[in-house]
Design goal:
The complex is a heterodimer of chains A (about 190) and B (about 190). Chain A is mainly alpha-helical and about 190 residues long. Chain A has helices spanning about 5-20, 25-45, 45-65, 75-95, 100-115, 125-135, 140-150, 155-165, 170-185. In chain B, α6 runs antiparallel to α7 (about 125-135), α7 packs across α8 (about 140-155) and α8 crosses α9 (about 160-185). The chains are: A mainly alpha (about 190), B mainly alpha (about 190).
Chain lengths: ~190, ~190
């Protein structure tokens, strides 16, 4: 789950940036880059694409900073940018015809790479988590986004609806279908 | 409660977003309905598995890469200033046109003899006469030149008053656009002044 600074602080940083202090944006990057990277990583399934999308998210946010409404949450706003960019990226990339087992294997290799990069915090994932994550990453883009936001970012239904600008009913339907699809792929857990 | 109602409300129930009375009804249903209870348990297992996914660390250079990219962009406020600038342009242009129209109306330039005189002046006596006849100062010298050029291109011996007016309007709009752009923050950023 993305942890950020308080909303008022974010609004002040945005205002400062708009008032001609672009360095204030660096503080927002420092605060949210890890969360956005993780969101992109879980959506896209590999660290290189996740880093590219994180960079693109902040560039997009910077160039459209004047459209941000300070009365609303910066986190929701930037998460929406990131999710939409990831969805667009997945659409452009198309769905590779990769089996669940191959995807699990690829995920394990990425996790090993991450662990090597930061040995102090090895990424050990349970077999269940690996299987479920691999299954989520085989879902259609929007269903995938809903499940990632729900179970990895721990958002409530109405927060997902706001983030993806979808009706609450659509979010619930996607969540239900996404869960069914994951269950069909991985079978019963636990 | 029917199973379909329970399943529909299950996510809101898990979010704690249902009224206490409905929550009680859902809980009662779950104690007697094995199918709905199994669905709830499956949701919990899925949520548990995904919440066990560890956090990944972005590369140490990611923030630096982002800063390098944003440094090449115009300041974010410039975009806002640019849009505000366009609004100013539209308002200013509309004001100029209204003022010009009023002046011309007051000077009687809409009357047929004056129209003919202006057309004759443009065609025969050159820019400065046109400026004098138009009575609306230096902008119109450029206007007259445009009218003459357009008239020549269109092979019109004496440009019509409508053509003259259209060119005048075009000149006013173009001038306002150029002035606004020069005043804009984006332009100053391009020049490296901000």
């Amino acid at each position: 789950m993305i942890r950020g600074s308080a909303g008022a602080d974010d609004a002040a940083l945005v205002r400062s940036c708009l008032d001609g202090h672009p360095e204030a944006f660096d503080a927002l990057v420092a605060c949210y880059q890890r969360g956005i990277y993780n969101l992109a990583y879980r959506m896209l399934g590999n660290p290189e694409d996740a880093a590219d999308m994180t960079q693109e998210t902040f560039v997009r946010a910077y160039s459209r900073l004047d459209t941000f409404d300070p009365a609303r949450s910066f986190l929701t706003w930037i998460r929406r940018i990131a999710t939409n960019l990831c969805i667009d990226h997945l659409r452009r990339r198309g769905t590779p015809d990769v089996s669940l087992e191959e995807r699990i294997e690829a995920g394990a290799q990425h996790a090993d790479g991450d662990a090597a990069a930061s040995p102090s915090r090895a990424l050990e994932m349970s077999e269940d988590a690996q299987r479920v994550l691999a299954a989520v990453q085989r879902l259609p883009e929007r269903q995938r986004a809903v499940l990632v936001l729900r179970y990895i970012e721990n958002l409530k239904i109405d927060e997902i609806a706001r983030t993806l600008r979808m009706p609450v009913g659509t979010v619930k339907t996607m969540l239900f279908r996404g869960r069914q699809a994951v269950r069909e792929m991985v079978g019963d857990l636990g | 409660m029917r199973c379909s109602q329970v399943l529909d409300a299950l996510d809101d129930y898990l979010d704690g977003r249902v009224p206490p009375r409905l929550a009680g009804q859902i809980e009662s249903h779950l104690t007697v309905c094995a199918s709905c209870a199994a669905e709830l348990a499956a949701i919990h297992r899925l949520a548990d598995a995904l919440s066990a996914v560890p956090r990944a660390e972005p590369g140490a250079d990611l923030a630096r890469r982002i800063a390098a990219r944003t440094a090449t962009l115009p300041p974010p406020g410039a975009q806002r200033a640019f849009r505000a600038g366009w609004r100013r342009v539209v308002v200013t242009a509309a004001g100029c046109l209204a003022a010009l129209g009023l002046v011309q109306l007051l000077l009687g330039l809409w009357s047929a003899p004056v129209r003919a005189l202006t057309a004759w002046a443009v065609a025969t006596a050159g820019d400065w006469v046109a400026v004098a006849v138009g009575g609306s100062v230096p902008l119109l010298s450029a206007t007259a030149a445009i009218v003459r050029a357009v008239g020549r291109a269109a092979e019109v011996a004496a440009p019509t008053w409508e053509l003259y007016l259209a060119a005048e309007v075009g000149a006013v709009v173009a001038t306002v656009l150029v002035l606004s752009w020069v005043r804009s923050r984006t332009f100053r950023h391009v020049l490296g002044l901000v």
